[in-house]
Amino acid sequence: MLKALTRLMFLFQVYIIDVTDGQHRWTVKHRYSDFHDLHEKLTAEKKVDRGLLPPKKILGKNSKSLVERRQKELELYLQTLLQQFPQATPTPLANFLHFYLYEINGITAALAEELFHKGEQLLQAGEVFSLRPLQLYSVTQQLRLAKPTCCNGDAKTDLGHILDFTCRLRYLKISGTRGPVGTSNIQESTLPFDLSFFKSLLQIEISECSSHQIQGLPSLRSSLATLSIHRSTETMMSVLVPEASEFSQWEPEGVESGCPVTAVIPVWRNLTTLDMSHNCISTIDGSVKLIPKVEFLDLSYNQLSSVENLQHLYNLVHVDLSYNSLRALEAAHTRLGNIKTLSLAGNQLDRLTGLTKLYSLVNLDLSHNQLSQLEEIKNIGSLPCLEKLNLSSNPMCIIPDYRTKVLAQFGDRAAEVCLDSKVTTEKELDTVEVLKAIQKAKEVKDRMSSSDKKVRRGSGLNRRCCILAVHGLCPACFLRCL
């Protein structure tokens, strides 16, 4: 349990304590003076035998034999203390061994005491409260044990302070860690935790967790308005419908189905914002049927190659599909509806034919794509509400007079369009007018040229008919023979 590390350059010893609690292990570093301070507290508060701690030595204190002997004596000292208090570890000893960082009882006691002092103030301020998966795991485990809610007799550490706080909390952030926690072997991504004791949450943000360790999310369907989850899942289904794996066929409540179903799943009644960016999602699956009121949807930084099932979200206003793997977006109006903001930045789009009927679109971000042909802008040039367009970092941006040529595609609305976050200048508008005049002249010329060809074609046919008539042939029969 106890090892020693001697650092002669500083003329003191640091003892490394290996602590084991079930499958969890961690290390704590202390000097002899820390042991002395601990012993003073225990003799005063718990009437521990004052002679239990090995005495301090002055002469030869850095000798190898003394260090090894003291290591064994201090290890025996700690083992004796733990055996003396088998039910509840005294607070000074628990703090000495860093129970408040790594051990279930110590973690919940520390959290309860923090909320005893500051919980009411935090609730009144309406601030976002942050918790670690390890803390939530500890609370979850404590609730499952048939033990008193206060183990060490200190009312400030009663589990009730946590439950009272979580029942009323509205804004929660859960942030996990990659790799072990601190000096321990604890991997937070393997620790299951329950969210069902949060009764009033309006907003929750979860990051660096596994969707498989998150339990109790369905209990938040009636209250949650904003759900954000990052670096935690490969599917939307595992977050929005975690119970789907239990049923072969399911449908959201309120939907009539012609097929037999084994379960009817409640919808997220108040969810208006869903942020599932920075995950590994490759498909927009049928779970979106359970979020009918969502207005803001962020699926950026995922692995989407197509857009599906969003036609079920009739209230969508803002959609972020940036930094995925989209190469085309055909018939976008049938998939996205009457949205106002659409971000497609950072994909591999090289054409815009599918965006022609997004008539409600106000803000469109197409930066960092593969658009090279100015003709593609014609597909969005007639959108009546488009005000902000971002085409930066596309191949077409190197074309001479790129801005004015793009703005010219919007005709009389060129002055209303903000291109690449830059307001259109009067000089650019003058150039646009010249380009429009040139284009109009070209169109007139093309029409006239086309008319001339038709006239010439018609007159040539008349001449041939006359020639055929002279030779006694029927023009209609001759043409059919041809």
Question: Could you walk me through the main structural features you see in this protein, from its secondary elements to its overall organization?
Answer:
- One of its GO terms (cellular component) is cytoplasm.
- It holds the Pfam family LRR_4.
- This is PX domain-containing protein.
- This protein is α/β, with parallel strands linked by helices.
- Among the domains are: 2-97, PX Domain; 100-232, no CATH class; 430-481.
- The chain contains 13 helices and 18 strands.
- The strands form 4 sheets. Strands 4-5-7-9-12-13-14-15-16-17-18 form an 11-stranded parallel β-sheet.
- β17 (388-390), α11 (402-408) and β18 (418-419) form a beta-alpha-beta unit.
- α5 (104-125) packs across α6 and α5 (104-125) packs parallel to α7 (160-168).
- The longest helix is centred in the C-terminal third of the chain and has 45 residues, at 426-470.
- The N and C termini lie far apart (104 Å).
- The model is unreliable at 3-11 and 463-482 (pLDDT under 50).
Which residue ranges are poorly predicted, with pLDDT under 50 across at least 5 consecutive positions? 3-11, 463-482
Main β-sheet, in a few words? Answer: 11 strands, parallel
Taken as a percent bin, the fraction of beta residues is 5-15%
Specify the number of helices: 13
> What is the topology, as strand order, of the major beta sheet?
4-5-7-9-12-13-14-15-16-17-18
Shape: elongated
Helix content: 25-40%
Distance between the termini: 104 Å
Gyration radius (Cα, Å) is: 36 Å
Total DSSP E strands: 18
